[in-house]
TrEMBL record:
It is found in: Cytoplasm, Cytoskeleton, Cilium axoneme. Consists of at least two heavy chains and a number of intermediate and light chains. Belongs to the dynein light chain family. SMART domains: Dynein_light (SM01375). Its main location: cytoplasm. This is Dynein light chain. InterPro entries: DLC_sf, Dynein_light_chain_typ-1/2. Keywords: Cell projection, Cilium, Cytoplasm, Cytoskeleton, Dynein, Microtubule, Motor protein. GO terms for cellular component: axoneme; dynein complex; microtubule. GO terms for biological process: microtubule-based process. The gene is LOC116951350.
Length: 107
């Protein structure tokens, strides 16, 4: 069945929204902290779209500066991670389709 132009347009808008927003998979951060952390991460990922290592470095530096030291960051696709972290300091989300970001703080 053919879709109308209006339906097709809304579909592409939804896809565009998914490409520019974070889909939080898990977080035990306070709401305000999570919002700020996601913003920091999205800015770095948008700035370094083809260089995940640089994005991770910028995210780590920003998180250390904003929330204190000992943050760890993984940015990539198709990875698994098991971490020990300070309670209230873990964020895992997807961005831009297949890219995942995991940020955590430990002592």
């Amino acid at each position: 069945m053919a879709r109308s132009a209006k339906e097709q347009g809304s579909s592409s808008v939804s896809y565009k929204w998914l490409k520019t927003q974070a889909l939080v998979q898990y977080s035990d951060m306070a709401d305000e902290m999570r919002t700020r952390a996601v913003d920091l991460c999205l800015n770095a990922c948008e700035q370094f779209t083809s260089d995940q290592m640089s994005a991770a470095r910028i995210i780590k530096e920003s998180m250390d500066k904003t929330f204190g030291c000992s943050w760890h960051v993984v940015v990539g696709e198709a990875y698994a991670v098991e971490v020990v972290y300070e309670p209230g300091n873990l964020l895992h989300f997807y961005f831009g389709g297949h890219t995942a970001v995991c940020v955590w703080k430990c002592d």
